[in-house]
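Section: Multi-chain targets

For targets with more than one molecule, the full set of components is provided together so that the structure can be written out for the assembly as a whole rather than chain by chain. Components appear in the order listed by the source. The example entry contains two components.
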Amino acid sequence: MLEEQDMSAQEAAAVVQDARARARKELVICAPFVYAAWGLALLLGYGAMWLSVRGQHPYTGPSGVSIAALLGLAALAVAAVVVIISKTVAGIDGQSARYRSIILRTYATGYLILLCVQVAIKGSVSTRTVAFVAFAAPLLLAGLTCILASALGLNRPAFALGAWLVIVGASCAWLAPAAILAVCALAGGGAFLLMAVIETRLRAHAS
Amino acid sequence: MPAENGLDPVIHAPVRLRVVVTLATLRDGDDLSFTRLQELLGLTPGNLITHLRKLEDAGYVTTVKSGSGVSARTSVSLSRVGRKALDSYTAVLRQLLDSASTSGTSPHQPGPANPDRISPGLPPGPPVRRSDDEAIL
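Its structure, encoded as tokens over all components, is:
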């Protein structure tokens, strides 16, 4: 049994550093990857929809191809994030698993409600209202979810991202449909990408 | 009980130190399955059980068995006492490294100190940062 041998202080420090680095790599969810995946999906997806409605007079809505692009990118992001998170948290149980479940269910329920509202109001309100509910409200919901994650202590820096997304989402209520898509792509997707950079620096600093 | 050098002898052993540091990476209230811990540390089940028992006897870790048959699961977590013990251990370790670099001697090793070995010691700040930077879903 490789044990009970005497260790010097330097050797012990090396063991601590090595074990900590390995544990963080294996057991802590790679936040930069998750943020980057969502950031790219939002930037490219919303960006594609914005390109398809740019110059539309009157506004008729994003093209089917651009909507498919957003859905495809979102599906890819979800798949990548689920794979990474599942691999990382395998074998870990307890409070954080319960918190992740709460966050997931909160967003899913909120998004389902938004879909129902969208169907219910379609045809009876302006295209601007429909665009707000369809494109900006999910971002607002994502912001609230980030704030919830921060409040639960899962990811404290997510509060800043959440607050920003809420401001961006709410601001879209004053914008035209095409502008909503541009703002969601740049201010929404961009914020996620910026968060990926910040998290990368935080992780490098912590190690 | 602290050893002569002030380092907790229960933790001051390579495998147990790795176990404790690995478990300290988890958030408070989380636990890790025995098999994942074993896989992470590259130990045999018997070896890991032996060390876990010592840590458990000291009140540093808690193991809980749940389920039965194929769904049986043994989970391991660091107790509050264990987390405090690791904090104290790393604080003492840092002091030893600091005093060694000041006096120019290697702690607990005869002969001249090797600055290259001392410098990559523990960084300043909290000894073990918990995983408070998970990404949201």
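The longest helix of chain A spans residues 177-206.
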